[in-house]
Amino acid sequence: MEKNNFFPVSNKIDPKIYAYEDSHIDFQGMLKIGFTTKSVEKRVLQQYPIKRPKKTWTIKLIENAVKNDGSIISDHQVRNFLYKKGFKKISGEWVKCKVSDVQSAILSIKNNKEYDLDRDKSFELRPEQKQAIDLTIKYFKNFQKDNKKKMPHFLWNAKMRFGKTFATYHLMKKLEWKKILILTFKPAVQNSWKEDLMTHIDFENYQFVSKDSLEINKIKKNMPLVCFGSFQDFLGKNKSGGIKIKNEWVHSTNWDCIVLDEYHYGAWRESAQDLFDSEDEDEKLFLLGKGTELFDEKIIPITTNHFLYLSGTPFRAILSGEFIEEQIFNWTYTDEQKAKNEWKEPNNPYLSLPKMILMTYQLPENLREIAIGGEFNEFDLNTFFSATGSDSVAKFKYEEQVQKWLDIIRGNSKDLIYDNLKLNTQKPPLPFDDYNLKEILLHTLWFLPSVAACYAMKNLLEKKQNLFFHDYKIIVAAGKKAGLGAEALIPVLNAMSNPLESKTITLTCGKLTTGISIKPWTGILMLRSTSSPETYFQSAFRVQTPWTFFDSETQEEKIIKNNCYVFDFAPNRALRLIADYSCRLNLEESNAEKKVAEFIKFLPVLCFDGSSMKQVDATGILDIATSGTTATLLARRWESPLLVHVDDATLTNLINNPEAMKALMNIEGFRSLNKDIEAIINKTKEINDMKTKANEKDLSKKQKIILSENEKEQKNLRKQVQEKLIKFATRIPVFMYLSEYREKALKDVINELEPGLFNKVTGIRKSDFQLLVSLGVFNSSRMNDAIYKFKRYEDSSLSYLGYSTHFSEDIGLFDTVIKNTDLNPSLTSI
């Protein structure tokens, strides 16, 4: 492992605003205001290239130029502030003012008081942002030609740091929209939406209205308007069940577009259920009817012409079929880092996007043993960091072990040399021990299991034995005290003060892990267990926020943060999530190893296994992600509803084909299938008819209840059919286990090599299987993935037993074969 590749030496910078006076008669009563990251004295001398008989200038002020959010104040901003206050501009950088006036200006800008955001940003759209805008416009225009009465929905499946706000505003500008409404469940994202609109030269005269900005009565009707608000506020009800008075104007406005920000499918659904809990039960059933798209234009009580959805991890929304391929623009972390590496021209627009590095550590056995168990019989972070109590009396259940963990990440523990002091054990780079990491990790986010755990950690860090951490300001961004939405940001930014000099640790169990951007965060410690790649990577990407500034001295964009880090202490869990996440990014590629290899090429994974820290390759990750777990987990993949299709088109194909129905009847549990499918199709027709009528006039209360009941019954029937088809799918691993032809595609084995064995195991003849395949009953890409993982597990079992007979063979999937040379490039030279 080349250490310098992952932990570069930190470049220390010290940006300053300075002011000096000159006793020369031409400069009486004036101050020259400038900016530098070097010595002020040397910088001023550079401005006097011709030596004078005597020194006429005197430096009167030197102030750090860093705001608490990490952004750098420029001399241009300070002078503009003074001009707006009425101070006279003389020439160049000279202003007729006093030192106290400059100090007041800097303080006001730092605190955002009496300070209007300057339009000093002039960066351009990146190629992928232009592509997203063009695809969206094309879809919107084509959709409206073909669907006069419906509204188009489009999804930007774009990783965090894509620049969704900037791209959305350019979409608005290009389509000449005058009014867009941005809805979110995470009000903390307001700052980024406001900043892009109010500071970029492309959006001159655009207005931004929100809960705490422009007042409604001051909105100018002839100027483009962006309205930002929380879903809870704008769609919530008052105590009497009506629209809040202050929001009536939002509901009466016909918006050009509603933008649903941070649209992580599950979170919106669950939060919406909480939101509507106070409503009439019948109305709630209608709004949240099973099978109903919650954000359908008939459901949101606000009118619009377009819907735009933004998310970095909309996996469930895509897999559920909520969006089809032509409704989605994709941009992943891999795409971004590849573009960064491949950019050949000057002014690389991706250069400021930090590279992520994942570092995982296997803790010593004496620490892990207290929290081993659960379904996978492995180390559980939620148990390890479990706590009770609140505020100053909160305490970890295993405080002694957590203290040892703190000693380990400090590099100050006898437990560091694991497993009985192995002679070949090497001390790994640790977050608060390695010299370079300590310099980089001035500000970190610690993601814990609960509010109690956050307070317990604060209390433990402040104890006498943890003197090292007393240099860090500890902020608990958890619980009611932390505030809601953007309020939770304030204590974090205030604690940072000058982020280039200060040190902070932010403790959270959920707040500030979605949608917000805090530039100085350079590392996140994952101290909670989660099986969701959405939750994991939404949180991890918080630390990838670019941190740059424009150096007016050199007229260059300077990068403060080149790398950022994710630290994890449950290696198996972390690697499973890496495999899961990278495989979900590209559904078109069937080779899981290629997907993982491409992803970790740009997000290196380093693992400390108790003896040394090494970089893990794609094969290693997949080994842990598949064979590194239990057989139970593997079996669950064959119980996934994604393996089979139960959409209306497939069910209609089945019921209209007597031979196909007869084939299914041969399988135990399928006797009632014919009636089930008929019932589903009939219910679907009834539901569609009612929805068509609902377009013409509102449904009565009774009709809403009937519609909800029909949709519920339809879903239950569909689920029954799905479960029966899955029962058949679960027999496929048994057949593969008994078959000798693992290098052939499963379809070929069934059709040509072992049809008799397949019939005995599944009860389906070769001809019947061919018919079901032709009718689209099986999801080929998902079957390929499940078979691949089964065979990886089988490989690892054979290797464990000392056999390696399959090493040189190809791997047959459902309808394709992965060549062994693709899996093992070294074999091409044999």
Q: Give the overall form.
A: globular
- The fraction of residues in strands falls at 5-15%
Helix content: 40-55%
> Mind describing the biggest β-sheet?
8 strands, mixed
**Count of DSSP H/I helices:** 35
CATH H-level superfamily title of the largest domain: P-loop containing nucleotide triphosphate hydrolases
Radius of gyration in whole Å, from Cα? 30 Å
CATH class of the largest domain: Alpha Beta
E-strand count: 28
Could you give the order of strands across the largest sheet? 19-20-18-21-24-13-25-26
**Overall pLDDT confidence:** 80
Q: Spans of 5+ residues with little confidence (pLDDT < 50)?
A: 270-298, 417-424, 628-633, 797-808, 824-830
Based on secondary structure, the structural category is alpha/beta
Amino- and carboxy-terminal Cα gap? 27 Å
Number of domains: 5
Q: What is the correct CATH architecture of the largest domain?
A: 3-Layer(aba) Sandwich
CATH topology category name of the largest domain: Rossmann fold
